[in-house]
Amino acid sequence: MIGTIALYLGFFSAIAAGVIFFLQSQNRYKKIETTPIMVWYFHVIAVAVGSFYLLHALLTHKFELVYVFNHTGLSLPTKYLVSAFWAGQEGSLLFWALCSSFIGLILIHRKYRLLAPLMTLFSMGQSFLLLFLILESPFTLQAVTPADGLGLNSLLMDPWMVIHPPIIFIGYALFMAPCVFAMAALWKKDFHEWFLQALPWACAAWLFLGVGIIVGGAWAYRVLGWGGYWGWDPVENASLIPWLTGGALVHGLLLQRQKPYLLRTNMFMAVTTFLLIIFATFLVRSGVMAGFSVHAFTKTALSFYLLLFLLCYALIGYGLLILRLRDIPVALRVDGYLSKGGSFSLTIFMLVISAALILVGTLSPLITGIFGVPSSVDETFYLKSNAPLMLLLFLLLAFCPVLEWKSRNLYELLSRFRAAAVVFPVGVIIGYWLGVKSVFHLVFIGVIALAMTINGVELARRIGKGLKFCGGYLAHLGLALMFIGIVGSMGYTQSQLLYLHQAEPAFAFGYEFTYLGHSQQEGEKTFNISVNRTNENFVIKPRMYLAGSMPRWMKEPYISRSFKQDLYLSPLELRTKEKGETVVTNKGDTFTYGDYSFLVKDLIIKNNVFGEVIEVGVVLEVTGEGTEDTLVPALRQHDDGWKSLRAKLADGTEIAIDEVDLFFELAYLEFLGKTSHTEEILIAEIKVKPLISMLIFGSIILIAGTSMAVWRRFTSKKYEHD
Amino acid sequence: MRTKTIIGISLILLFAVFAFHSFSAALNPYVTFAQAAHTGRTVQVLGYLTGEEITYDLENKHLRFYLTDEEGTRTLITYEGAKPNNMEHAESIVVMGRIEEGVFLAQKMLVKCPSKYEEEKESVKK
Question: Is the complex ipTM more than 0.90?
């Protein structure tokens, strides 16, 4: 009840704040009165109370709430009770609204000149979020209070998954700020400051979204056991696309801060990036991609309102942009592509093209559905079409530290590169030596090496000025390292399915695997596998465990990390097989087993109409213990493979055929009786993934560098120049 | 200036053609087993488990199972890779691959879970 009231109060206060801010924005430059600010404070309190109430309900197991029932259980540890807040879409929307309300508070306190129009547009977005929450409330009650909840999906019970959604949603919430800065500037035809004010927000939004994406990848790699970190799934792409356009926005704003370039482009990017954020939300929640994504989101009542949200901001944003196109001050013309301005413009262009390609790929089932049979593109499209763009981006990255405002000619530029150019062949040779054979990959590695060296040198030169000023170079260095990891792990992963018979070594990728056995606890099996390689010997313990309300076996991979490569082992299935004593005989042979003696009288072969063998049998004459009998164990072809038809002796021993060699008329018979034992076979998938360590290391550096840039932007003086 | 513009435009056009080509080359239509058998190219089929056993074929080292598509055609699927978690409980399965001699050779498998918001990733690659 309290929660629902809080949401309604939040909704109406957001609208009220919007209306009052709007009225104030009509008389320009008048001092902001305290009324709308008080209303906004009230709004923040309402949303915070609602959030606290949900948190409280989760922690105290109020199963009368559908949301609590669906996402938690009595046995869930406290940390996962907290993370259940954002396990479902209602809770994650509430978290988004909470972040957004606090961002509004910070905006108010930063006393921007265009605060009234700014907050009018911001309140509008906030009203939409609260409207969604009223329509799909996390506080919906159910008639009967169940004794226990369904529990949290066990795949989500991972530290990375605890932090992944909130980071993404902070990013989503932050991207609303640059958008409203641009729209407010267009509305009031005041273009002097918006880009300076929007820059720190855009940087922070871009950082959070980026960290969220990376954390999501880490979770997929560690927990899901399919051996990858990025699957080009619509849900993943939905956050990558605004991250790319957000990157374009950040670079555009950084350029505009120094010289009046790209005035219209930046406005467009600020609006578009936020629209793509709403579109991402729409895509994963509306069910339009339901048939094409592995993420099973159902269609919700929100689709229409999300579309309304999107249209509303698109109409205002693009509408204003078109109306005010002539009012926007004239931008400087970029002085050729081999200038600072030119390299920034090209970077933005590449990022936008890349985002557009991924968008087209993601929507391919819908696009092709218009013309005929819905088809979706596989990952080759994303990789192939983005590869040349990424190569060009790294080429730009290599050149950009030495570029100046005035364009230079290519010859002059290249002559400055002579010393650094050595790195290119060195990179290529190292790549080749490590086993890279594709020419494109070799060139790419060479260019990355070049970019790293030049940015590294520049970084070293800058570090004296203070750590604060190195963010960009550090971020670029991290990005370059990440791409080395991406090339290695995406292009050169090897995988093999292994059938590990207990105590019998199996070989793959230079490793020797020996399955030692498993230990079993309730609902959990841990496998012990000894791994041997020259000078290395260790035991790894992948796990399978039962989880969920409808219990099923989850497979936890085991990852053995090293600088050069990760060894990734997912257990797939544990099989038990009876293993007896094998006797190899020839047609006409006699042999004894136990108290019996046998004569192999004949081999029977049955063919089908096409002449294919469908059954083989071995005719055995058995004598012993006063009995005389003829037994015919056989192998028969079925739809799904060969089935063994066993024969039984008087003492209970069974005879099965393992194999029959028709050419030499040999039969491999297996005797399964008192002396036989069961053998365990573990079926496992082994992957060797090169340079994952580089990807991780690069990600950390990228995040660190971007964080430093964000810190700088939030603390810098208004017109500080490089 | 004019030659530069021409070079620029032709480069962009070249890239557009390249992007369109890789787009159409990577397209895998959603079809039925009957159509899949007919075309022989790589396609995607949405199917449902028949209740028959999902087994690993120890000799040929692949996973074998049956799916029926929306038209009710039952086809044997082989897949060289890991069996996804919870495959038995799948609401539906999308297999991507092609039909050879009546057997669907899957390269990729997507398992869709019945539960509501479970953000599970069950994509598995060869």
Answer: no
